[in-house]
């Protein structure tokens, strides 16, 4: 490992440690367990100068697991489903600067059963967006490893005033928008294996430092708990006929602090989650890739009593406009 690589490794490791140590101590906003998957979906891997990348995805999050801290209740009278349409775009301005953007449309349904009678609430609408400028300190296609750093904003485009059938404004976690401007941090590092260049190990660290919704229920202040996420991934590419299949396996660690209402901590919010992500992408053409990303909960510890994800699935298509590259593995990875 030369001095440059050694410096990059130490710098990246330091950033990751600082992010994980200090983020849980802060308070702002994150998507709740059943909310819109913005932070975890932002950010493309590297590509050539002048390349425009685009991705359209459908995300399903099914929640039917009721927990009290570690304990799982055997039966639950609550169910929740969040469906999101996500459009992500990114443009490579030059060899070191790029900008990514993510837009969302959200549909949420919550069902509560009391004495065999079900009560349902539905909301849908345009969700919030994310703009993420990034700098590239090393590129996979040139050095066999890649390091990107990003810092951006979550923009409050979605509504926060949906009401139920009685005319009562719904809770913050059932709204398609947050009503807050939030800071997003993003670190990505990947490295190819010398013995198998098509195999890549990578890590992503994301942080979300959020603002306050000062118009919650008209005059109150609401903050979701700040969150941090860590992805550890291993991916490879396999030739099937004249097509390329790219399986990958990831672990996602997520931490979320408690929400705050009028500066007071809100019980039954926040927690810790570990999920397994066995993903598969199919390179239909060099610039067209289809992907399937299931997400399976392995571990969770919530604060108080909460409904947590039971299963998650994302289906999508990636398209690249721009220069041709002879190695698809250096263009896109999950």
Number of helices: 2
Distance between the termini: 26 Å
- Compute the average pLDDT: 84
CATH architecture: Beta Barrel
Topology at a glance:
Blueprint: H1 3-22, E1 52-68, E2 71-72, E3 78-92, E4 97-114, E5 117-126, E6 129-138, H2 140-143, E7 145-155, E8 182-193, E9 196-210, E10 213-216, E11 220-223, E12 227-235, E13 238-240, E14 243-256, E15 260-261, E16 264-265, E17 271-285, E18 288-302, E19 305-321
Antiparallel strand pairs: 1-2, 1-3, 1-19, 3-4, 4-5, 4-6, 6-7, 7-8, 8-9, 9-12, 10-11, 11-15, 12-14, 13-14, 14-17, 15-16, 17-18, 18-19
Overview in brief:
The protein is mainly beta and 334 residues long. The protein contains two helices and 19 strands. The chain is 7% helix and 58% strand.
């Amino acid at each position: 490992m030369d001095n440059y690589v050694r410096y990059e490794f130490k710098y990246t490791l330091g950033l990751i440690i600082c992010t994980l140590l200090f983020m849980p101590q802060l308070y702002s906003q994150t998507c709740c367990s059943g909310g819109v998957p913005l932070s975890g979906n932002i950010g493309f891997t590297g590509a050539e100068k002048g390349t425009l990348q685009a991705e359209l995805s459908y995300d399903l999050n099914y929640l039917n697991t009721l927990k009290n801290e570690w304990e799982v209740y055997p039966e639950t009278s609550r169910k929740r489903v969040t469906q999101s349409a996500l459009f992500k775009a990114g443009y490579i301005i030059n060899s070191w600067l790029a900008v990514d953007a993510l837009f969302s449309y959200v549909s949420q349904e919550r069902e509560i059963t009391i004495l065999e009678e079900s009560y349902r609430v539905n909301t849908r609408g345009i969700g919030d967006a994310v703009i993420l400028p990034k700098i590239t300190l090393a590129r996979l296609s040139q050095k066999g490893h890649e390091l990107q750093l990003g810092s951006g904003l979550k923009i409050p485009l979605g509504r926060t005033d949906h009401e139920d059938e009685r005319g009562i404004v719904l809770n913050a976690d059932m709204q398609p928008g947050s009503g807050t401007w939030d800071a997003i941090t993003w670190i990505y590092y990947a490295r190819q294996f010398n013995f198998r260049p098509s195999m890549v190990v990578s890590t992503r660290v994301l942080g979300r430092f959020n603002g306050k919704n000062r118009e919650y229920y008209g005059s109150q202040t609401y903050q979701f708990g700040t969150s941090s996420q860590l992805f550890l991934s291993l991916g490879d590419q396999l030739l099937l006929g004249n097509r390329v299949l790219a399986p990958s396996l990831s672990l996602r660690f997520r931490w979320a602090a408690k929400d705050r209402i009028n500066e007071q901590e809100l019980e039954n919010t926040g927690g810790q989650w570990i999920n397994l992500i066995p993903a598969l992408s199919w390179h239909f053409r060099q610039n067209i890739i289809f992907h399937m990303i299931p997400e399976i909960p392995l571990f969770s510890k919530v604060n108080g009593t909460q409904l947590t994800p039971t299963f998650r699935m994302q289906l999508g298509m990636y398209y690249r406009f721009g220069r041709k590259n002879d190695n698809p593995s250096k263009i896109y990875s999950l």
